[in-house]
Hints:
- Helix content is about 30%, strand content about 15%.
- By secondary structure, it is an alpha/beta fold.
- The longest helix has 15 residues, at about 160-175.
Amino acid sequence: MTAAPxxxxxxxxxxxxxxxxxxxxxxxxxxxxxxxxxRRPLLLAHRGCSALRPEHxxxxxxxxxxxxxxxxxPDLVATxxxxxxxxxxxxxxxxxxxxxxxxxxxxxxxxxxxxEQQVGWFTEDFTLAELKTLRARERLGPMRPExxxxxxxxxxxxxxEIADFLAAEAAARGRSIGLIPxxxxxxxFARLGLPLEPRLLDHIGKSSYLSRAPLIIxxxxxxxxxxxxxxxxxxxHARLMQLIGDPAAMPADIAAQGMKRTYADIVAPLxxxxxxxxxxxxxxxxxxxxxxxxxxRLARPTGLVEAAHRAGLLVGTWTFRPENHFLAADFRNxxxxxxxxxxxxxxxxxxxxxxxLDAIFTDDPALGRQAIDHAGEWKS
Length: 380
């Protein structure tokens, strides 16, 4: 992979056009906008190939790379001894066998994470050595039988192990494989005295692979990305991605400050212009780009992709999954809610790609590769 896909677009930034597109987002009416020259969209492996392997394991990452992913995604949380490990959440009740381990029964507890009360076992209460005794489990259970059949086989892995694994895979395959880590619960971990960002930057600087490989750092919070922006001058190969959550919710860092600013506010025209001062990518959920109508089918696009492009941002989206349960009604088949539906998933991704997306997250990179490679002619 060359550095070209990371080049920020040279787009028009007309205030009048931004206002028009902002109105379009509120009304749901699509507004035509010039389509800039663009390169082939990036394929981002969501937690690895998490549709077929237990998420955030080397097996999931290996399958994603084999299936053509440009980037693999580790969600990063901290251990008690300050090591960054890959778990979707710091609560590991659903993604490991910790509940079956009597030696850790006393560590089951209740905590408030980003305003949400949770019960379970949390990475910050375990050392890396203790986490290494656990084994990964499929979170979605019966919906993903192939992955579930591998329960108990794989360890929790550290960022250092992931970097070494990527270096080996890149050398063996003769191509760069990017890393797109998500910083999870930044404000929460900082309050525990376990800030994630300096640990991540330290890993990047010390890793001969991460110090030169394609890198996109993402977060649902805003303050950490703003603070990382000037620090990335030492890592010109790294970019930042602002993730966008439920429009009615607030980023955890903003809520912690007692402010009232929702994700809907953040993707308003002025908010997009602000994001463009510190980040390269905007990444809302798929349904913020094309929402569902009352019948479950796709409605009109909101205009968010065009608005973000005009603000100077690249646009990714999360997350495409191959089961009927997650697909818009347009693309489901009659095999049942939990059934795997590859053709429907590819068709849905192509519907979104047609809007000019620059990157997509998918649980099944083989299907994502098919969708991208057959979605049209991309300019080189």
